[in-house]
Design a protein that fits this description.
Layout (H helix, E strand, L loop, with lengths): L1 H20 L47 H7 L18 E5 L3 E7 L12 E3 L2 E2 L2 E2 L3 E7 L6 E4 L3 E10 L13 E10 L27 E5 L11 E3 L3 E7 L7 E11 L8 E4 L4 E2 L9 E3 L6 E7 L15 E12 L9 E4 L4 E4 L24 E4 L3 E4 L12
Parallel strand pairs: 11-22, 15-19
Antiparallel strand pairs: 1-2, 2-6, 3-4, 3-8, 5-6, 7-8, 8-9, 10-12, 12-17, 13-14, 13-18, 16-17, 18-21, 18-22, 19-20
Length: 399
C-alpha cells in the first residue's frame, strides 16, 4: 500500500512539472489528476550558446508561474539535421580530430616527393609520431606543441600550425615549404541549476599560523636580497641563500639536488647539484662553490651565470631564470648522504663546506641516498633576470 502511494505521488509530481513546462488547457478526472495530450515529447536537456543564456529564465521563484515563451523556444527548439561533409575523410589531404585532452592529425604521404619528409614536418614544435603506408601521424596532448589557447563567450579555441620546411643545400629547390592553420573548438556549457542557488557569504576573520618553511633566495655579493630591477651578468656569479625555518641543536640544512630553468618542469633545464649534495657545476665553473655562514639554518652558494642557447635571441625581458632544489635537515656532521661538496679547481679535489672531505669521495661515482625517515622539501627561488654584454659594450677592438 505504501509503495502504491509513493508511485502515485511521484507520477503526480512528474505530470505537474510537464504541465508547467508546456501549459495547456487540461481537464481533471474524478481523481483530480491532470490529463496530458498525447504526443508530448519533452527533451531531457537542450544545448544552447552561453551567449543566449538569460539567467533570470532559470531562477526559481516561490509558488508557480507560466513558462516564458523564450524558455519554451529554447527547450522545445527543433533539432537540426546533421550536416554531411562535402568530401569524405579519405579524400582529404590533412585530417584532424579534437579529443577531450589531445589532438590527432594525419597527413597524406602523397603530398610529398621526399621519402624523408617526416623529418621536416611538424605540428607546432612537435615532430611526427608515426609513419604508415599512406599517412604521417601526430598524436599529442592538447596543451603541448606550443599551442595557442583563446576563448570567447561561447567557445574555447586551441590553435596550432602544421608546417613543412624541407632543408636544401643544393642550388635548386625541388620542394616548397608550407604551413596550415589548425584549430580545435570546444563549446562552453552552463547548467541551469548554476543560477538557482545564490549563497550569501558571511565575512569573518580567520587566523593562520605563520610558517615560512624552507626557502631559497637570489642575493647579491653581500648576501642581501636582490633589489627589484637588478640583474646578473652572464659569466659572473649568481649568489643564493637557502634557509631552513629553524635549525635544531646538532642539525643544519643540506641540498639534495638543484637545477636551473625558466619555470618548474620546463625545458631546457641545467643540473648544477645532484648525487645528494655534490655541486657538479663547480667542475665546469670556478664561480660555482659553497660559502660558510655564521647562521646554522643558512646555506650559501654561488653559480656562474649562464643562458640557454634558445634564449639568446629572446628579448631582454624574457631572459628570466629560477633555481629549483630539494632541501633537507640533517646532522651537523655531514655524511656521504647529506653533505655540501664542491670541486676546488685550485686543489683539483672535492671539498666539504664544514666537515671531512672524505664524505665527498663518492661525488664522481654514486652516493648513497639519505635515510627514508629524513623529510625532503622541494623549494623554488624567485626569478632573476640576465644581462648579455653585446659586442659594442666590450669596445671597438673586436672584429
Amino acid at each position: 500500500m505504501i509503495n502504491m502511494l509513493l508511485k502515485a505521488a511521484l507520477t503526480l509530481v512528474i505530470l505537474t512539472r510537464m504541465v508547467d513546462l508546456y501549459p495547456l488547457e487540461v481537464s481533471r478526472g474524478p481523481a483530480s489528476c491532470p490529463v496530458l495530450p498525447l504526443g508530448l515529447n519533452l527533451p531531457e536537456s537542450q544545448r544552447i550558446l552561453p551567449s543566449d543564456v538569460n539567467e533570470d529564465l532559470f531562477r526559481p521563484e516561490r509558488n508557480q508561474r507560466p513558462v516564458p515563451d523564450l524558455l519554451k523556444s529554447i527547450l522545445l527548439s527543433p533539432t537540426s539535421p546533421p550536416t554531411v561533409p562535402s568530401e569524405t575523410s579519405a579524400s582529404r589531404r590533412v585530417d584532424m580530430l579534437c579529443h577531450l585532452d589531445r589532438v590527432y592529425v594525419r597527413v597524406l604521404k602523397s603530398l610529398f616527393n621526399n621519402p624523408n619528409a617526416w623529418q621536416y614536418l611538424k605540428l607546432g614544435t612537435c615532430p611526427v609520431n608515426q609513419a604508415r603506408d599512406e599517412h604521417y601521424y601526430f598524436l599529442y596532448y592538447l596543451n603541448s606543441c606550443n599551442v595557442t589557447r583563446q576563448e570567447n563567450e561561447n567557445e574555447v579555441i586551441y590553435s596550432n600550425t602544421l608546417s613543412y620546411e624541407p632543408a636544401s643545400t643544393e642550388l635548386v629547390v625541388r620542394e616548397l615549404p608550407f604551413s596550415l592553420s589548425l584549430e580545435c573548438h570546444y563549446n562552453k556549457y552552463y547548467r541551469s541549476y548554476q543560477f538557482g542557488y545564490m549563497p550569501q557569504m558571511v565575512p569573518r576573520t580567520v587566523f593562520w599560523r605563520l610558517d615560512t618553511g624552507f626557502s631559497i633566495t637570489p642575493v647579491d655579493e653581500l648576501w642581501k636580497p636582490l633589489a627589484s630591477g637588478s640583474s646578473y651578468v652572464i659569466g659572473q656569479p649568481v649568489y643564493f641563500e637557502a634557509k631552513a625555518p629553524w635549525s635544531p641543536e646538532g642539525q643544519r640544512p643540506y641540498l639534495n639536488n638543484c637545477y636551473i630553468s625558466s619555470a618548474i618542469g620546463s625545458t631546457p633545464k641545467h643540473t648544477v647539484l645532484n648525487n645528494y649534495g655534490c655541486m657538479i657545476e663547480s667542475k665546469k665553473s670556478a664561480q660555482t662553490k659553497f660559502y660558510a655562514s655564521d647562521e646554522k639554518n643558512t646555506l650559501r652558494f654561488s653559480v656562474g651565470a649562464f643562458v640557454f642557447k634558445d634564449m639568446i635571441s629572446e628579448p631582454a625581458e624574457n631572459k628570466v631564470m629560477a633555481i629549483h632544489c630539494e632541501m633537507a635537515l640533517g646532522p651537523e656532521k655531514p655524511t656521504p648522504s647529506l653533505k655540501s661538496c664542491w670541486y676546488n679547481m685550485d686543489t683539483k679535489r672535492w671539498s666539504e663546506l664544514y666537515g671531512e672531505d672524505s664524505v665527498c669521495a663518492c661525488c664522481d661515482t654514486s652516493c648513497p641516498a639519505p635515510d627514508p625517515s629524513v623529510p625532503i622539501t622541494p623549494v623554488t627561488s624567485s626569478t632573476w633576470e640576465l644581462d648579455c654584454l653585446d659586442r659594442q659594450s666590450l669596445g671597438d677592438g673586436l672584429s
